[in-house]
Amino acid sequence: MFTKFNQLSFADIYDQCSDWVQNDKPKFLDMLEKHLNLKELIPFTFYQAYYNHYGRNREYSLESILSALLLQRILGIPTVSMLLVILELSNDIRKYCGFKTVPDQSQITRFKQNFGSHLEDFFHHLVDLTEPLCQKLNQDLADCLVFDTSGIEAYVTENNPKYLNSIIRRIKRFYKNNPDVDPYSMAYGSMPSSASCNEEIKQLYINGHFCYVYKFAIMTNAMGIVRHISLLGDDFKDNHPELEIDKKSDSPDEDKSIGDSTALKPVLNDFFEFHPDFSFNTFIGDSAFDSYENYPFLLKDCNFEQALIPLNGRNSKSLPEPGYNESGWLYALKMILFQ
Question: Does the N terminus or the C terminus of the chain have fewer Cβ atoms within 10 A?
């Protein structure tokens, strides 16, 4: 008698987990408790720092705090204050986190402030633990490193559509007798380069629209599993004094492409410094990374076997169209790389 087995996939697991999150939270918590053991995942240095800081008579364990913060992200709870309200109301969630009493908001805030660097180390440790699993699941996809940049849209006045509309109305009133003035382009031109409340929140052209964001770089493998995230703010610039800071130009797309290419080298260097034993066969990026300096860095310094980057039209207007050989190599690209 044969036993019938079902092939599992990430999509099936994600759909099942999403359904439990929406419709059966106790079952979802049971699944987390069964398959996720934070004690085995937290680095010893994090334990050491946490308990040395608070001493032996601690009210809340490290696993309890991390479990609560993890659930906040999984369940999409926007603020810590709302998380604490849910903990007060839900005995199941409180039991899963291991809380006898619910901490106050200041305790969560101090935890983030005091142990920010250890939280970062925790995520790097998770990458080290999950890389062998990715290799077992699909070695070809795990050997690809996909690089991109994007932005986290911030809750600031400048992102409110009413802010831009008020500027447009003022310009229309002021230039109502001048038909040659385009109030919309003038309004976009008068928008500040950063949010008034925080200079790190920059105006960028992300996903087809202007917005004020925290810019970041992200790397995943070809399965979509995150391997690294770097916030490209002032701390990142301070840690990389060799970085050339880009100036604003007339084209928001141009600014974005220059920033991407500039961030590539320091972000990859940081990644391989955190994970010196990692190696990947293929680098995948968009046309923003199509520059002469990037190819030798990727293939020689980072030891990628190939770099899959679309040609950037802005960089190749004066060049002849490249040809292809029987292996699919670009003639022009091959000659440039291996002269």
Answer: N
